[in-house]
Design goal:
Radius of gyration: 19 Å
Bound molecules: nicotinamide-adenine-dinucleotide
Strand order of the largest sheet: 2-1-3-4-5-6
Oligomer: single chain
Number of helices: 11
Number of domains: 1
CATH architecture: 3-Layer(aba) Sandwich
């Protein structure tokens, strides 16, 4: 299914750790659709990950390390990318999330505040830093598109999601506010895509993930959206077909966000009630 939707477009993809990563799938699909890309991730992730394999599959895309919390790294990434492309860019995918509290299984009500601040810096402020550095260096063309990935725990409580819920709420706010400023200044659009639970390194770090994945799948009229489908949706947002979409949080979740309860879940509960006598 390649339609050259992104022919001639150039962009940066953050966050491809391994072949399960949403960013990995998006990188492959963007190149299939005619885009040229630069890949980036935190230096530690580059050492552990398999990004060079991905780069080879993406017409030998350059891999430029950047810790997304470090402004100097981000400026270096943007400058090197513009040198590589010979000019400004058309899109950026922010596919970054990490919570030390989640990773260390520290309960929300017993949070470690240094960790909490790291969660917010890595998972939310990093979007502001990417946008601010891009604006300062004038790295994005008019009508270019920045997409960041988020989760519905920003709006509703999912207890295992821990402090990532606040990070996502903050990040969605940043997309809205920066989208306003970047829109007026340069016609750059900024949106978040709120994706279904997806089996990746970040996703499966959340406690009770497997049960929750199945629950969301049963709740959603279309089922859970896969990482590949998320990649496809991101590509439409990078394309010229969505030029007037900005400052939005867009649910890509098979209908989960607007479903109160599904018949499948009711039947499961009835079965459980019968089994318990
Ligand atoms: N998997 C899910 O269920 C799910 C659902 C909705 C939204 N999301 C979001 O999708 C995005 C991508 O996650 P994924 O599921 O593909 O998992 P993933 O673990 O493959 O990707 C997360 C990426 O963040 C990168 N990262 C962490 N700290 C960084 C830093 N300081 N600087 C730069 N990069 C850093 C990691 O190296 C990794 O590549 C995240 O924002 C995540 O919250 C995931």
């Amino acid at each position: 299914m390649a339609n050259q939707l992104l022919k001639g477009k150039k962009g940066i993809i953050f966050g491809a750790l391994d072949e399960r990563s949403i960013a990995w799938k998006t990188a492959l699909r963007a190149v299939e659709e005619g885009a040229e890309i630069v890949l980036t991730n935190a230096p530690i992730a580059l050492r552990m990950g398999k990004i060079n394999e991905l780069a080879a599959l993406c017409n030998n895309a350059p891999v430029i390390p950047a810790d997304a919390t470090n402004v100097a790294d981000l400026e270096n990434l943007l400058q090197k990318s513009m040198e590589h492309f010979g000019g400004k860019m058309d899109f950026i995918l922010h596919s970054i999330g990490m919570s030390p509290n989640v990773r260390k299984a520290i309960p929300y009500t017993d949070t470690n505040y240094d960790n909490f601040l790291k969660t917010l810096d890595i998972s939310a402020l990093s979007l502001h830093k990417v946008l601010q550095a891009s604006m300062k260096l004038d790295a994005l063309k008019e009508w270019s598109s920045v997409v960041a990935l988020t989760y519905i725990a920003a709006q509703r409580t999912f207890p295992g999601y821990n402090d990532m819920a606040e990070a996502k709420a903050l990040m969605e706010g940043i997309a809205r506010s920066f989208g306003y400023h970047y829109g007026f200044a340069k016609k750059v659009r900024v949106n978040t895509v709120s994706q279904s639970p997806t089996i990746t390194t970040a996703g499966s770090g959340v406690s009770g993930f497997d049960a929750f994945f199945t629950y969301a799948d049963k709740m959603s009229p279309l089922g859970n959206a896969t990482a590949e489908q998320c990649a496809d949706y991101c590509l439409t947002l990078f394309s010229d077909y969505t030029k007037m979409v900005t400052m939005q949080n867009l649910f890509h979740d098979g209908g989960f966000s607007n479903t109160g309860v599904s018949q499948g879940i009711i039947e499961e509960m009835e079965k459980a009630a019968k089994a318990n006598g």
